[in-house]
Amino acid sequence: MSIASNIAEGAARHSPKEFIQFLYIALGSASELETQLIIAENLGFIDNNKNEELKIKLASISKMLSGLIGNVKSKQ
What is the domain range of residue 36? Predict the structure, then answer.
């Protein structure tokens, strides 16, 4: 939820520089989520297979965010 919220907030800003800042914050939120997945597995809330599946999806989202950051930067 935090990742999407930061993207939306940044997109509503009036400058590419601010948008990029919020995209970096969204990338940080992705890192936080990765940590939360590890903790969830360690506490037994999810099993290893589910954790790996979610981490793969999260890695894909992080790559898309990085690509979007690069794209917005190139248009400045």
Answer: 2-71
Q: Is the model's pTM score more than 0.85?
A: yes
> Kind and range of the H or E element at 57?
helix 48-74
What is the per-residue pLDDT across 1-55, written as a single tens digit (0 to 9) for each?
A: 999 999 999 999 989 999 999 999 999 999 999 999 999 999 999 999 999 999 9
Q: List Cβ neighbours of 45 (8 Å cut-off, separation of 6 or more).
A: none
Q: Assess if residue 49 is contained within a domain.
A: yes
Kindly report the CATH number assigned to the domain that includes residue 57: 1.20.1440.60
Is the CB of residue 38 less than 8 Å from the CB of residue 58?
no
Q: Note whether residue 76 is domain-resident.
A: no
Contact present, 48 and 42 (Cβ < 8 Å): no
- Count of CB atoms within 10 A of residue 68's CB? 17
